[in-house]
Design brief:
The chain has 140 residues and is α+β, with helices and mostly antiparallel strands. It contains three helices and five strands, in the order H-E-E-E-H-E-E-H. Strands 1-2-3-5-4 form a five-stranded antiparallel beta sheet, covered by helices on one side. The longest helix is centred in the middle third of the chain and has 22 residues. It is globular, with a radius of gyration of 17 Å. Bound molecules: guanosine-5'-monophosphate and zinc ion. The site of zinc ion (ZN) has 6 residues, from helix 1.
Length: 140
């Protein structure tokens, strides 16, 4: 736990939150400034700033919880779908440096876009070059 981390303190019960799930490795609670009714944050209990810092078992538990909660969140709010996303790193707009998965309920004509709408599509490299670079960085 990081004493200076808001989400560690919510996990520890030191800061109140509207908790919707408590699991051995994961806690889920409502975002205090929801983008839509039912906006849930799913966080690992163990502090990690970004997903690359997490252990495989923690990742498994986190995404199992996201998968398990997506249906109930949608059902509870009468939503048509959910946008699920992570701001992974400060440069992406991540404001709390403790991994959290956003689950945001969606309805037709709710005024929000898809994840494609956040990018201006400023690409310059070929898919082949990018694929080669990522495979090399992955050790494949
Ligand atoms: P980020 O931009 O880091 O992906 O999202 C952080 C989210 O955490 C924001 O949507 C923000 O509203 C939410 N948040 C920040 N502080 C608190 C808090 O103290 N309690 C809760 N429940 N949510 C918070
Ligand atoms: Zn933390």
């Amino acid at each position: 736990m990081s004493a200076s981390c808001i989400f560690c303190r919510i996990v520890a019960g030191e800061i109140p939150a509207e908790v919707v799930a408590r699991e051995p490795e994961v806690v889920a609670f409502l975002d205090v400034q929801p983008l839509a009714d039912g906006h849930v944050l799913v966080v690992p209990r163990a502090h990690a700033a970004c997903i690359e810092d997490m252990k495989p078992a923690e990742i498994d538990a986190l995404f199992r919880a996201v998968t398990r909660l997506a249906g109930p969140v949608r059902k509870a709010l009468g939503a048509a779908g959910t946008t699920i996303g992570i701001n992974n790193g400060e440069a992406t707009g991540q404001t709390i440096p403790h991994v959290h998965v956003h689950i945001v309920p969606r309805w037709p004509d709710d005024g929000a876009g898809s994840i494609h709408t956040i990018f201006p599509r400023r690409t310059s490299k070929s898919l082949a070059d990018v694929g080669k670079a990522i495979r090399a960085a992955s050790g494949d």
